[in-house]
Amino acid sequence: MARRDSSPDFIEAIARGLDVIRAFGPGQPVMSLAAVAAASDLPRPTARRILLTLEQLGYVRQVGGQQGSAGQVGQLGQAGGGYELTPRVLDLGMSYVLSRGLWEVARPHMAALVARTGESSSIAQLDGSDIVYVARVAVPKIVTLAVTIGTRFPAMQTSLGKVLLAALPPDEAERVLAEPSRSGITPRWQPDASERAAALREVRARGWALTDEQLARGIRSVAVPLRDGDGRVIAALNVNSHAAETPLEVLTGKYLPLLLQTASAVSADWAVCQSVPQVTAGAATEEVS
């Protein structure tokens, strides 16, 4: 596999390790060595060494077959065994969520919103041409696509994504949308450039976004921006419903005002958190001395 970056500072081994972790996609909780190597586009010996390293670090474990260890690398992946990720992998994503602090600020407001609407609510941020869910309070309902923290969808076909894209200058939004999606989802709505521009102009004008089965059948949602103390859009917040259960009139007439109130409260609390001076332990010790 050729290097993907010619910079002398680029560490290819780390990139390959992340490729192996990402190989475990939806519906693939357990994978053989051969499957991991194929999905990550790595030679089997390389994939095998990475899996052994991840196993030693606690991010991967073997299931079925003969268990391997640092002294049994020759047996790794034999006798019909496979590999699965461990819950420790969640630390990688949660480090981002918790370091941002937005989840702790938003959680009580989202819980109150869900209690009043009876619908799920999520926060997402933009990553290339996709959105990535960074917070969610859900209600048990059968929907077309499962959503958890870390799930990604094409941005343009979601209400959350439309809000985030509309916050960008039009040229930058088109540049972002030119990037290939890494979600693995083929959305129902495939707008051309003029349709995208018109949709984002509408979102900018009214300050909120609607999606009605544009991503997948049965998914209907409305979203609004979350802002920091300087007014910049830092994320988007939505109410998600099933199209067969919630009419558009209810979504926009009843839930949208509640959503706007919630976003205002979250943004206000976030601005307060930003204004609190951050004092490190080292700095505090230095002041005392």
Compact description:
The chain is an alpha+beta fold. It is built from 10 helices and 8 strands.
CATH superfamily of the largest domain: GAF domain
How many β-strands, per DSSP?
8
What percentage of residues falls in helices of 4 or more residues?
Answer: 40-55%
Which series of helices and strands comes N to C? HHHEEHHEEEHHHEEEHH
Largest sheet: 6 strands, antiparallel
Count of folded domains: 2
Low-confidence stretches: 66-79, 279-289
Find the structural class using helix and strand composition.
Answer: alpha+beta
CATH architecture of the largest domain, by name, is 2-Layer Sandwich
Order of strands across the biggest sheet?
5-4-3-8-7-6
Shape: globular
The number of helical runs is: 10
CATH T-level fold name of the largest domain: Beta-Lactamase
Strand content: 15-25%
**CATH class (first level) name of the largest domain:** Alpha Beta
Radius of gyration: 22 Å
Question: What is the terminal-to-terminal distance?
Answer: 54 Å
Mean pLDDT: 84
Task: Describe the fold and architecture.
The chain has 289 residues and is an alpha+beta fold. The protein folds into 2 domains: 12-85, Orthogonal Bundle (Arc Repressor Mutant, subunit A); 91-275, Beta-Lactamase (2-Layer Sandwich). It is 44% helix and 17% strand. It has helices at residues 12-22, 33-40, 44-57, 90-100, 102-117, 159-166, 170-177, 193-206, 248-275, 281-288; strands at residues 60-63, 82-85, 120-127, 130-137, 152-154, 209-212, 219-227, 233-242. The strands form 2 sheets. It has a 6-stranded antiparallel beta sheet. A two-stranded antiparallel ribbon has the order 1-2. A hairpin with a 5-residue loop joins strand 7 (219-227) and strand 8 (233-242). The radius of gyration is 22 Å and the shape is globular. The protein starts with 11 loop residues before the first helix and ends with a helix. Residues 66-79 and 279-289 have low confidence and may be disordered.
